[in-house]
Design a protein that fits this description.
By secondary structure, the protein is of the alpha/beta class. The radius of gyration is 20 Å and the shape is globular. The protein is built from 11 helices and 9 strands. The strands form 2 sheets. A 7-stranded mixed β-sheet has the order 1-9-8-2-7-3-4, sandwiched between helices. Strands 5-6 form a two-stranded antiparallel ribbon.
């Protein structure tokens, strides 16, 4: 009762129809909002259903939520070589790991499914934000093995347009909150002072943020492509923030470069005030399937 499944054009669909489509594809790319409890429940159930119907096909869980340099730690835990305590101490899990991603990882562990860390290490992504993607070339070869082939492809015009719109919306919301605080405090500060750290719609020091975003996308796409190439017949189930896959930009664009012809299904899961109201202008074509979830439920905490 807390979600509804639609096709990309708003036609009502079902969880069963989504599973059937997933079973026919190589990569099921599931775009979530990170604090949406229903999205996480849907993701786990999709993993369970895909594995249950795989009939011997290799099913792999790939995650944005772990960085590529902790893959060995993940594998040690999945193999029962280290405790969960040591696994979490060494793998830098997100703050909402226990509530939102642990159930899927534990299912994979119990059933012998590989779990792949796909995201570029944050320490390198941070340097790209500050210094640009060319900074990565200064890394030793031992570090580059945690990254996609360099130089990676930067954002497409379509992806840049989506990014600019997202940043403009975020900046407007931030400014509105600042203005609200000022009004509450009844201060006489110059109304423009709150905006001074901003430059071209981006906080200072974040001028290369889109390049960092593209590094995340390229890293995840390359990790997925490697699984599909190195293990023919594999079926990937990928959990990721929705922006990375919606509208077929981001990860899908990079995946098409690393492994042309890869068959993928994109699922966009969006919290919404009314799950029965599919707004074609807002939601159409976000993914092959769009799932609206109950926005009124308590959010999970990162």
């Amino acid at each position: 009762v807390h979600y509804r499944v639609y096709l990309s054009d708003g036609t009502p669909s079902s969880f069963a129809e989504l599973v059937a489509a997933g079973l026919k594809t190589e990569a099921l790319l599931i775009g979530e909002t990170h604090d949406d409890p229903i999205a996480h429940a849907i993701e786990r159930e999709l993993l369970v259903e895909m594995h249950g119907a795989a009939r011997g096909r290799r099913v792999v869980l790939t995650l944005e939520m772990f960085e590529t340099d902790v893959q060995q730690v993940l594998e040690e835990y999945l193999a029962g070589l280290i405790s969960e305590t040591h696994f979490k101490r060494s793998s830098r899990p997100w703050g909402n790991y226990d509530t939102d991603y642990r159930p899927s990882v534990e299912y994979a562990r119990e059933h012998g499914l590989p779990v792949i860390a796909t995201n570029a290490p944050r320490r390198y992504v941070s340097q790209v934000t500050r210094n640009g993607p060319q900074w990565l070339e200064t890394l030793p070869e031992s570090a580059k093995r945690y990254l996609p082939p360099l130089p990676y492809e930067l954002a497409s015009p379509a992806y840049k347009a989506e990014w600019d719109a997202l940043m403009a919306e975020s900046m407007a919301q931030m400014q509105a909150r600042m203005d609200s605080v000022k009004a509450t405090r009844n201060t006489t500060e110059d109304s423009t002072s709150a905006a001074t750290p901003m430059s071209h719609g981006m906080p200072q020091g974040m001028g290369n943020a889109l390049d960092s975003q593209s590094l995340w996308d390229a890293s995840m796409a390359y990790s997925i492509a490697r699984q599909l190439t190195d293990y023919p017949g594999t079926q990937v189930v990928h959990f990721v923030g929705a922006f990375h896959v919606e509208n077929g930009t981001g990860i899908p664009e990079h995946l098409a470069r690393y492994r042309p012809g890869t068959d993928r299904v994109i699922v966009s899961i969006r919290p919404h005030d009314d799950i029965e109201a599919f707004d074609a202008e807002e939601f159409a074509r976000l993914g092959d399937f769009v799932i609206l979830t109950d926005k009124s439920l308590p959010r999970t905490q990162r």
